[in-house]
């Protein structure tokens, strides 16, 4: 287990940022950490990065206890906060060499490693550019390059795609996929749920400091699927179509929404071909029938209550 927390709790006065958090992340996972603002995601990441001390409970990183063995943890992690920080008057190569020196990487080895991370993050052509001149997307890639210098086992990424344009988000996502293929364990918090679904092997959903779900994206979707909902549109009278469908035995509810019918079926119903048959029998034409897609966004909305602190 590369990350393990037991009853992890963090209080700021009367505010409980984390409440008895039990989190387990296996080596080699790409773990998506999801939750509304104020849920406790950044607090968790800062504790794992040894920047905060828990009020009580325990956090272990690579088998070492945060607080007691923080000096052993720091060489094993790479922490990318949601803001870039200072050093903006340096050029890119100088910036990376500065941090490489901080990890006691010297001589030819330093030059080789800096060149390697520049190539991996596609920043080689910017090696002589001022950090301050880089776009936000390039600065995020530079932040990732920085934390790769010492080849950490665990990457802690706090909202790395925040504020990026679509192209920059795609570039960051592809970079993280490559790092995962290289065997890095990644913990990433994000509000961009479709990208986490595409990237992560497992997720954790946090609300008001408590973990309400941990598992695969597929399991989250399965938990959120409360029966089947079918979208039906007809060029004929939608109210009459609603009455026809509402009378069917496997239909729990029918709602009219912007001219479309949202047909909720009982949980045991998997075949909805009877909907078309009923409409045709009622001499109602069909424009479209499709099953509602349940994705990570849907799962998040159904597994959380919208509570913020």
Output the keywords.
single chain, 309 residues, alpha/beta, Rossmann fold, Alpha-Beta Plaits, 2 domains, 6-stranded mixed β-sheet, 4-stranded antiparallel β-sheet, 11 helices, 14 strands, elongated
Radius of gyration: 25 Å
For the largest sheet, list the strands in their spatial order: 6-7-8-3-9-10
CATH homologous superfamily title of the largest domain? P-loop containing nucleotide triphosphate hydrolases
Low-confidence stretches: none
Helix percentage: 25-40%
The CATH class of the largest domain turns out to be Alpha Beta
Terminus-to-terminus distance: 30 Å
Give the helices and strands as they follow along the chain. Answer: EEEHEEHEHHHEHEHEEHEHEEHEH
Which CATH architecture of the largest domain would you pick? 3-Layer(aba) Sandwich
Mean pLDDT: 91
Describe the sheet with the most strands.
6 strands, mixed
Structure summary:
The chain has 309 residues and is an alpha/beta fold. It is built from 11 helices and 14 strands.
SSE topology:
Blueprint: E1 3-12, E2 15-25, E3 30-34, H1 41-48, E4 56-61, E5 64-65, H2 70-73, E6 77-80, H3 92-102, H4 107-120, H5 136-148, E7 154-158, H6 166-181, E8 185-189, H7 193-199, E9 202-207, E10 210-215, H8 217-224, E11 229-233, H9 238-246, E12 251-257, E13 260-265, H10 273-281, E14 288-291, H11 296-303
Parallel strand pairs: 3-8, 3-9, 6-7, 7-8
Antiparallel strand pairs: 1-2, 1-4, 4-5, 9-10, 11-13, 11-14, 12-13
Helix pairs in contact: 3-4, 4-5, 5-6, 8-11
